[in-house]
Amino acid sequence: MEGDLGWWAVPLAVLGGAIRVSTPILFVSLGETLTERSGRINLGLEGTLVFGAMAGYATAVMTGNPWAGVLVAALAGAVFGLVHGLICSMAKVNDIAIGIAMMLLGTGLAFYFGKPFIQPAAPDLPSIPFGWWSDVPQVQAALNVNVLFLAGIAAALVLHWGLRATKPGLILRVVGDSTDAARAMGLRPAVIRTMATALGGAFAGVGGAYLSLFYPGSWNEGISSGQGLMAVALVIFARWQPLNCFWAALLFGGAGALGPALQSVGVTQGYYLFYAAPYVLTLGVLIATSSPNRALAGAPGELSITK
Amino acid sequence: MRPPVTGIGADPLPAGALEVETVGMTMRFGSFTALDDVSIRIAPGSFHALLGENGAGKSTLVKCIMGFYHATAGQLLVARREAEIGDPRDARALGMGMVYQHFTLVPSLTVAENLVISRADAPVVIDWAQERAGLEAFMSAMPFRVPLDQPVARLAAGEKQKLEILKQLYLGSRFLILDEPTSVLTPDEADEVLGHVRGLCQAGEISVLMITHKFREVTAFADEVSVLRRGRLVGQGRVADLTHDQMAAMMIGEEKALRPMDRQGTRGAPVLELRGVRAVDRSGLKEISIDALTVHAGEIAGIAGISGNGQMELMEVLTGQRALRAGEVRVAGEAYGATRQEAQAHAVRYLPEEPLRNACAPRMSVIENIAFRSFDRNGKGPRFWLSAAEMRARGRDLIAAFKVKAADPEGPIAALSGGNVQRAVLARELTGAVRLLVISNPCFGLDFAAVADIRARIVAARNAGAAVLLMSEDLDEVLELSDRVLVMSEGRITYEVPAAEARVAEIGHHMGGHAA
């Protein structure tokens, strides 16, 4: 029977899910990597993600152009990051507490301004049908890759290279690892951290635009379901490495698709347990890769959680 | 970016070593005068030593020169021109650099990355192939080298110190301030480093102002010496004209330092025994392997070795910070896992290196830190309700007895200077019965009087019957204190000799890992 792949549908759905679901997680974790590499934690990215989703969707509805939506989402994210960064630059302010406040503020503002945009439909972001060679609809669906996913890969590569081989990248790492050393070099850590947080916010905003403008592709209040927070946790899992963020996001996205895929091939018992797969997987890998004898490799020295 | 400051007059500074002179430099903090009318001239190409105890104003003087502080009064002349140095960047633009006592390297960056990013003119996009070639060429011209691809966090203290000096040379500084540059180096390394620095001075490439407590280094390498005491310049002259005793007299004035006491008593029963101990080192790549090590009551066993040869890890094994892979540690015949109960039962005490990090809660008060061994005991047994008054009284007594200079005993211990943190921890660890004392680099970065004081207390503990295991990167210290000298190299004990028969050359040979 055409279109019925039996159990083959499961890995295919996992692959498709990995590509589809991972994009916002990838963007948020890349943004958080930037921020944390500068020595600050921005837990507010969940709020930024939701606000970015709303702002992007609203802009796309009003202008008819999804790319304008992505741009506005990025700008909104940058503003959120800037606010977080500026507040944290003041003395005796805890970045984690501010992050939680910003998370609540972001989601609250998004719900408030987003009410009128739950009904109207916005144009979707374009995607590239890499599955054109196949007649199997599941293959086509799985390989229908959104442009932002490719942009995310490019961003991960650029960040990986930039942190290693550019002056701004090295400066970011200096500031993140030792405030004293940075000051001795005549750098201004607070300014650099604020910029890194703003840029990180912009990344999260783009991730939000992907949510509302491609997958799931509409604006509603439950759109993120904690993906922003999960992405922040993934940064630790990825050991603050942009390329690892990519793999971690793929893994997480793929594991998330496992539950629905099993359900679709007719597994009726226990499939809901697989909805927890991403979390179980993350925990498992974290435990397997950590050691009581070694410090958490790669953790920026100025992070308030590792100090 | 501000344009570099070149002092008054538009002419560029002369090439080669810089002449730097302070004229009537005075620095007041409120009513406290940290620096009082200090005039020092460092001639171009000279190696100038700055002697003084902790708190004598050496750091203040140097910070005024480098632009961290703005002197209340006085002038700074660079190449005989008045220089206004607003911040360290101005100093750097003039070709003045400083090697700090605390490290200013970025731990997670590799050596190569640290060097490149420290350059003001680092390119926006770094061509690593080209930079590496440049760094290799630079390193090959140096008398010592540091592995370029290692993250600085993996380097031992001695290697970091070398890298700090290399960094300044790499940056092309023409006037260099060295703050206790050899504290963690072996005598050979120190001679090598300072010899090279002196060579650069004689070649007219740099002038050097070195803060130090080691008279030997002053005599061997410096041309001139200035001595500070309580913010005043109390002596100055050519090194060739001064004896060690004269310099010491200028430095400490009338106060008499405690001399290490005579040794008394005889070696008792074994207290600490290590058998077949195996553990991974900090990088996880190498192994620490101690086949047998015994320390007896009433003796000081000193482990000499170049930093990074496993001393840090051995200390961590003994303090319970590092898990054993095999073997056993016994104290007084019983298996010892370094739990609080075991340490208390056997009266095991520690003074680890970097005590602020390894033996203190930095933000808790001095008094609380001193109470860590005793806060939950009321003389006989454990207690639940703490007695703040008792803690305070006990803390104040110990602060006085061990001469800890703490402006505010209720303030955080992190606010104390290194020597005073060391004293505070010693006060805690040496109080009460001590059966085993494990010490690592007890005098790192301390001044003359503090060193003598702390060494006297260690010998006193030994005389009272404690078994002392001393690990130190300062060979002189090991030789002065130990009854038995051991050498650690590449994670193993490679040599053992009674102190009476110890010969520096032989020990140095084993420290370098060259002996068969």
TrEMBL record, chain A:
Location in the cell reads: Cell membrane
Record Pfam families? BPD_transp_2
Keyword annotations for this protein, in alphabetical order, are: Cell membrane, Membrane, Transmembrane, Transmembrane helix
Q: How does it sit in the membrane?
A: Multi-pass membrane protein
Protein name, UniProt field: ABC transporter permease
| Primary site of residence | membrane
Task: List all membrane-crossing ranges.
Answer: 6-31, 43-61, 67-89, 96-114, 141-163, 190-213, 219-238, 245-265, 271-289
Q: Which InterPro entries match?
A: ABC_transp_permease
UniProtKB/TrEMBL annotation, chain B:
Q: Which GO terms describe its molecular function?
A: ATP binding
CDD domains per the UniProt record, alphabetical: ABC_Carb_Monos_I, ABC_Carb_Monos_II
ABC transporter domain: from which residue to which, for each copy? Answer: 18-255, 272-515
Which domain of life, per UniProt?
A: Bacteria
Q: Kindly name one Pfam family recorded for this protein.
A: ABC_tran
- Ranges annotated as spanning the membrane: none
Q: Which UniProt keywords apply?
A: ATP-binding, Nucleotide-binding
SUPFAM superfamilies for the chain: P-loop containing nucleoside triphosphate hydrolases
What name appears for this protein in its UniProt entry?
Answer: ATP-binding cassette domain-containing protein
Q: Which organism is it from?
A: Paragemmobacter ruber
Which lineage is the organism of this entry classified under, starting from the top rank?
Answer: Bacteria, Pseudomonadati, Pseudomonadota, Alphaproteobacteria, Rhodobacterales
